[in-house]
Design a protein that fits this description.
Strand content: 15-25%
Strand order of the largest sheet: 1-2-3-4-5-6-7-8-9-10-11-12-13
Helix content: 40-55%
InterPro entries: LRR_dom_sf
Structural class: alpha/beta
Distance between the termini: 49 Å
Shape: globular
């Protein structure tokens, strides 16, 4: 189907009380856009977002100017495309240069624009910043990973920020500004009256001129009247006076209720002022203290700018001082509800004192631990149990299994486990892990790397674990080398795909080696009503691999039409066949259906289309996951919201 001319793109009917007619051609258009590694996805009812493609570009397909022309026509013609979200990390953005000009023309009609590590040249930043002056609908703006913005770009962006009446969310993470131009941006932010969520890298605000910008950042925190959520990444900020001014401003701030400080815990200013913040700030409800997103100072984009004269002296024991200062302030805090910390660099004594301080604080409902040193996992788990705070602590980090399997996995807070059994001498560790896992029903995510020989020797234990009733929701299984035993290979595939607790299954290795095994996978996928995401990647011969994958896809096409749960499918393919795109069409349908149903549940869209979507996927785990993600609810709250929406819908539909 030739989709490269204006005549093939229907006019936009968005806003006419129905879904735009373009949605009928969406899958065909995405098949073409895959050549430039982009896709259009329905991320809100009747609204489209331009995103990086969810599957890799075919190896033998070249990008063509005709595809860019099609995208340009679609973007300019269709008002239903309201968002752009492009993350350039890990992809080659140089061939995507034509996209910048299109976004400049599209900006006035966008509601959300997020670009990360996409803008590399100052003239691109200038053009986009100039287009923002006409962006009167824009609510969410992210310009991240820009090396160093110049005077013109900063001036244009500052003018937009100061005058906008719609922008509520702004992120300039890892974006740096020459110090002499920083006052323009900081001054505009302090005068803004609409931004509620702000993310900023602070290093550029101080470098170069004896900390003259410290007061400006102080004014920003104090003056941005609508600001409620603030994320600051210290990056390579080394100015002690500036850090002190910033921390003082946070202590007395009466607006920000959610605060994230990345990379500040090792500074003297943090150690000095965080106890005061916890004891005196009655507005703060959520505090996050984590390492900087720029772990290595050499990665910071502004390191070449002259350093400040007042260099910051780090605490002697780095982040230990930060955690200790948090512990010192917790007993005097009666307002904070959630605290997120990283304990990766804390000593056992520091961990003990932190949890003891947490125990004395009765108003803090939840502590989230993002990192723990692998050698201290056992000690931390025991400390949580002994302190009587297990009900208020969540561990959001992987447990790398190396020893003490029985003790470590017994802790009900350990939900994510990683085991690399391919390293020498790990056979016994693997055996003990597979023996104990069936009795650890609290484990929800498992990343397991095995050799083909280990699969054969531990097959009975692995299958027994998969066949038991469990709460395992996410399994990433890597098998190195070919599994030669056909019976083992096929029984393992069946056990994996018949597990009805799994919602995400990622398989990597030579587990599908013939058409018969492809048929097994296809049949099980079609009847599986709990699996939301499935990927099958392996490194066999490319030609043979495509043959097996084509067989899998041909078997999937008829049966998968009745499956409304599978929302993501990733296969290793050298070429993309018609069957593959047909299957992807079903997956995209499921994703859109789940999204519409979730919006109905949350009350953001009560259209007939969303109500019908809810009736189709009301029992799907994908719906539960989507509701939890959109509304930041836990599983029980999300289930209650779904049941309440179903009851309301049935009552509305009942004859009066």
């Amino acid at each position: 189907m030739a989709l490269y001319g204006d005549e093939y793109v229907p006019p936009c009917t968005h806003g006419a009380g129905e879904v735009c007619a373009f949605f009928r051609d969406l899958h065909a258009v995405n098949r073409v856009l895959l050549q430039v590694e982009l896709e259009l996805r329905e991320t809100a009812p009747a609204q489209l977002t331009l995103l990086p493609a969810s599957i890799p570009r075919p190896a033998r397909v070249l990008m063509t100017p005709a595809v860019w022309r099609l995208l340009d026509v679609v973007l300019q013609r269709h008002r239903c495309i309201v968002s752009v979200d492009i993350n350039g990390d890990g992809i080659d953005v140089e061939p995507m240069r034509p996209l910048i000009d299109m976004l400049v023309r599209k900006a006035p009609s966008l509601v959300m624009l997020r670009l990360r590590t996409v803008l590399n040249k100052d003239e691109e930043v200038q053009a986009l910043a100039a287009s923002l002056l006409a962006a009167h609908r824009l609510q969410d703006l992210s310009l991240e990973g820009i090396g160093c913005m110049g005077a013109i770009s900063v001036g244009l962006l500052a003018s937009f920020i100061q005058n906008t009446t719609t922008l509520t969310k702004l992120s300039l993470a890892a974006t740096h500004i020459e110090p002499r131009y920083a006052p323009d941006l900081l001054g505009a932010l302090s005068l803004n009256t609409t931004i509620r969520t702000l993310t900023l890298s602070t290093c550029s605000c101080y470098r170069g001129y004896v900390c003259q910008y410290g007061p400006l950042l102080h004014c920003l925190v104090d003056g941005c009247s609508a600001l409620r959520t603030l994320t600051l990444d210290r990056c390579c900020l080394e100015c002690t006076p500036g850090l002190r001014l910033l921390m003082k401003a946070l202590v007395v701030n009466t607006r920000v209720s959610t605060l994230s400080l990345c990379g500040f815990a090792g500074s003297e200013a943090f150690v000095e002022f965080i106890p005061q913040l916890l004891a005196q700030n009655r507005t703060l409800r959520s505090l996050t203290v984590l390492p900087s997103a720029t772990e290595d100072e050499n990665k910071c984009r502004c390191v070449e700018i002259q350093r400040c004269e007042h260099r910051c002296m780090e605490c002697a024991d780095s982040d230990f001082g930060g955690v200790a200062s948090i512990a010192a302030g917790l007993p005097y805090n009666f307002w904070l509800q959630e605290l997120t910390v990283d304990l990766s660099w804390c000593s056992r004594e520091q961990c003990r004192r932190f949890f003891e301080a947490f125990r004395t604080n009765c108003t803090l409902h939840k502590v989230v631990v993002q990192g723990i040193h692998k050698e201290d996992f056992r000690h931390v788990c025991r400390r949580i149990r002994e302190s009587g705070i297990a009900g208020r602590v969540s561990l959001h980090c992987f447990l790398p299994l190396e020893e003490h399997v029985e003790d470590l996995t017994a802790c009900r807070k350990v939900l994510q486990i990683y085991l690399d059994a391919t390293r020498p001498g790990r056979d016994e560790l693997l055996r003990r892990t597979l023996t104990v896992l069936p009795f650890r029903k609290h484990v929800s995510m498992l990343v397991l790397q095995m050799t083909a020989q280990q699969v054969a020797s531990e097959f009975a234990r692995l299958v027994s674990y998969l066949e038991r009733e469990a709460r395992l929701k996410h399994l990433n299984l890597f098998v190195g080398g070919p599994v030669l035993d056909v019976d083992v290979r096929r029984r393992l595939l069946v056990a994996l795909l018949r597990n009805r607790s799994l919602q995400v299954l990622e398989l990597k290795g030579d587990l599908v080696t013939c058409a018969t095994e492809a048929l097994i996978v296809a049949n099980e996928l079609c009847t599986n009503n709990t699996l939301c995401e499935f990927s099958l990647l392996h490194g066999a011969d490319a030609t043979a691999e495509d043959t097996f994958m084509d067989a899998l896809l041909r078997h999937l096409i008829p049966g998968l039409m009745h499956n409304h749960t599978l929302c993501s499918l990733l296969l290793t393919m050298q070429t993309y066949s018609v069957p593959y795109h047909a299957v992807l069409g079903v997956v995209c349908r499921n994703r859109a259906t789940t999204m519409c149903a979730a919006n109905f549940v949350l009350g953001t869209d009560r259209s007939e289309r969303s109500a019908d979507a809810l009736s189709r996927v009301q029992h799907s785990p994908a719906l539960l996951r989507q509701v939890m993600q959109i509304a930041s609810l836990d599983e029980i709250e999300a289930q209650f919201a779904i049941q309440r929406a179903l009851c309301d819908h049935q009552n509305d539909a009942a004859p009066s």
